[in-house]
């Protein structure tokens, strides 16, 4: 058990949020469920990795870890120099050297490169530099120079090694401007990125490749950090014994099977359509008819048993024409069905096992009535777009995934009394997604180029989009449909007492699974050309199958 507040709940005098579930007892330690493979990559706050490194070393002058880091850095520098037929001997490498251990990494790496015939120059950008690193560079025949020569040296350089600031960065650092055509290899994390949050200074030094030491840092996988790090190579420094529980995990395509944890037995193979999952969809309006169609098509394309739809008149015809698989529900049928649901739970024919609510929905009396009725029936549900605007914070007993983009998260937090700016959210997205998860007692899937899925106890999974082209109108509606199908097919551990944390972790994993399928469909569609939401739909069946669904 962790004590309230959990570690990510940093003091903020502007806000006092009463969590929907106020009992500290609900907040269990983030636990790796037995059976997880190492494919989910653990992520740690940069400051925790820094503390672990310090704890691992015998004394402040011990350079064992630094030399390990420098070897890895030099190795990647060699690969970059040799790529595209480049030469190593006589290649010009400039190191941007800062005042601390990050600068030390850079100096030892330059020394290793100098020994291999590279013309290695350390540009000393701070009043002091790591003494042993400097001595090693000089012994190996490397050179040092000062900031005033940087611009002229940059004109004729094959590679820059950015070893200015790592996990020790404080706000306000002055960073040199590196022309965009110069290739950059970052030591640990690009200088200018906050290793705890991913917030990047406007003058951040963008890298083509980053060698990350000891463990993957949160700042490299969310916020702007993951957009400026290039390809990331993690080196093992044997820190496991000194690291706390991970801050989050990065999940990738290979992890889908683990995340879904589907029943693979012969009995499951014999399931009829109602057992494969019945999804209810409440979506669309005269203003946004297309959103309902996109969600419906995404749901049926991702392997659903049956789709039941509750849409306004203006959308009904379009839906029947474009999604012939869907079966409309009228008001009376809906009422009867929800009553059966309340009595008998979610299993069996003609009952709805989950709901997808919100794409294209507008706030009016009819929609509110449907929404209240459906929420009361207590099936697992995904709530998006228009439904988010109608939702109130607070405790409930339903399994809910909310899928806001950053703007919607801002509104959700404002409704919960959390005064936070859009910039605050962009600067530390995991933190604010966690606040919303607590305030709304749900799993939050925060959309963006790095999608963050988090439960109220802070358990967090991160999914990266393979292409920025996913940021296109209707793409989120497709995601809602996918999530609906996954929810409809899922089984959840018993709904009683202590299992709430397990339930919310399972829900977080389903959310991440949906984001993975969406991201993979995006990658497949982008390989064919520019991308629309309909292109995404067309790639969905292939994406789901390739990931093992
Ligand atoms: N610990 C280990 O054993 C290992 C560490 N490793 C490597 O070390 C990195 C962490 O090293 P680090 O702790 O020395 O911090 P680093 O990022 O070099 O910068 C700190 C220096 O910059 C200064 N500074 C910061 N912001 C500033 C600003 N705005 N304006 C001006 N100055 C500013 C700051 O000043 P201070 O805050 O002390 O006043 C301090 O002097 C880590 O990322 C990894 O690369 C690996 O080799 C493995 C072993
Ligand atoms: N820069 C980006 N790179 C990659 N994917 C992105 C980026 N920005 C947004 N996305 C993804 O695109 C989708 C957009 O969803 P949303 O904003 O709800 O769009 P809409 O409401 O038009 O359907 C989400 O899945 C989100 O994660």
Multimerization status: single chain
- Average pLDDT, all residues: 89
Strand adjacency order, main sheet:
8-1-10-19-18-17-16-15-14-11-12-13
The CATH superfamily of the largest domain appears as: Ribokinase
Uncertain segments: 1-37
Head-to-tail CA distance between termini: 35 Å
Name of the CATH architecture of the largest domain: 3-Layer(aba) Sandwich
Radius of gyration: 26 Å
Shape label: elongated
Bound small molecules, by name, code or SMILES, are: ligand NPW, adenosine-5'-diphosphate
Supply the helix-strand structural class.
alpha/beta
**What can be said about the biggest beta sheet?**
12 strands, mixed
EC number: 4.2.1.136, 5.1.99.6
Family: Belongs to the NnrE/AIBP family. In the C-terminal section; belongs to the NnrD/CARKD family.
Binding site for (6S)-NADPHX: 101-105, 188, 291, 360, 405, 477
Domain YjeF N-terminal: 49-245
């Amino acid at each position: 058990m962790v004590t309230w507040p959990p570690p990510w709940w940093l003091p903020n005098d502007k806000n006092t949020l009463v969590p929907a579930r106020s009992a500290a007892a609900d907040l269990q330690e983030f636990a790796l469920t037995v059976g997880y493979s190492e494919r989910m990559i653990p992520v740690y706050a940069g400051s925790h990795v820094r503390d672990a490194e310090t704890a691992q070393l015998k004394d402040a002058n011990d350079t064992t870890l630094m030399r390990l880091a420098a070897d890895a850095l030099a190795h990647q520098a060699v690969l970059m120099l040799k790529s595209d037929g480049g030469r190593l001997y006589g290649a010009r490498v400039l190191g941007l050297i800062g005042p601390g251990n990050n600068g030390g990494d850079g100096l030892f790496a330059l020394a290793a490169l100098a020994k291999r015939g590279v013309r290695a120059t350390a540009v000393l950008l701070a009043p002091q530099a790591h003494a042993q690193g400097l001595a090693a560079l000089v012994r190996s025949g490397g050179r040092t120079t000062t900031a005033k020569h940087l611009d002229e040296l940059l004109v004729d350089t094959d590679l820059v090694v950015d070893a200015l600031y790592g996990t020790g960065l404080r706000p306000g650092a002055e960073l040199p401007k590196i022309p965009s055509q110069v290739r950059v290899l970052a030591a640990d994390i690009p200088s200018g990125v906050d290793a705890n949050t991913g917030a990047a200074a406007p003058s951040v030094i963008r890298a083509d490749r980053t060698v990350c030491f000891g463990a993957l840092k949160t700042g490299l996988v969310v916020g702007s950090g993951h957009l400026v790090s290039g390809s990331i190579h993690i080196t093992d420094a044997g820190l496991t014994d000194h690291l706390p529980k991970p801050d989050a995990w990065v999940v990738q395509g290979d992890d889908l099977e683990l995340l879904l944890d589907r029943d693979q037995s012969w009995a499951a193979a014999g399931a009829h359509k109602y057992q494969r999952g019945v999804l209810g969809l409440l979506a669309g309006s005269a203003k946004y008819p297309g959103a309902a169609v996109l969600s419906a098509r995404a749901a049926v394309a991702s392997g659903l048993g049956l789709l039941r739809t509750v849409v306004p008149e203006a959308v009904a015809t379009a839906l029947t024409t474009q999604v012939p698989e869907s079966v409309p529900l009228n008001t009376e049928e809906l009422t009867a069905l929800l009553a059966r649901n309340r009595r008998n739970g979610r299993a069996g024919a003609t009952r709805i096992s989950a709901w997808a609510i919100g794409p294209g929905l507008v706030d009016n009396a009819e929609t509110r009535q449907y929404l209240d009725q459906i929420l009361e029936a207590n099936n697992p549900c995904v709530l998006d777009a228009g439904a988010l605007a109608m939702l109130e914070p607070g405790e409930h007993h339903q399994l809910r995934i909310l899928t806001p983009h950053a703007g919607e998260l801002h509104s959700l937090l404002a409704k919960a009394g959390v005064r936070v700016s859009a910039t605050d959210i962009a600067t530390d997205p995991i933190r604010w997604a966690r606040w919303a998860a607590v305030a709304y007692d749900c799993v939050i899937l925060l959309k963006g180029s790095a999608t963050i899925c988090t439960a109220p106890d802070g358990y967090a999974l991160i999914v990266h989009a393979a292409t920025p082209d996913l940021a296109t109108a209707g793409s989120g509606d497709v995601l809602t449909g996918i999530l609906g199908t996954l929810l409809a097919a899922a089984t959840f551990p018993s709904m009683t007492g202590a299992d709430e944390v397990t339930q919310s972790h399972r829900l977080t994993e389903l959310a991440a699974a949906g984001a993975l399928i969406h991201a993979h469909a995006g990658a497949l569609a982008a390989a064919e050309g520019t991308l629309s939401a309909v292109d995404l739909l067309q790639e969905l069946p292939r994406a789901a199958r390739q990931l093992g669904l």
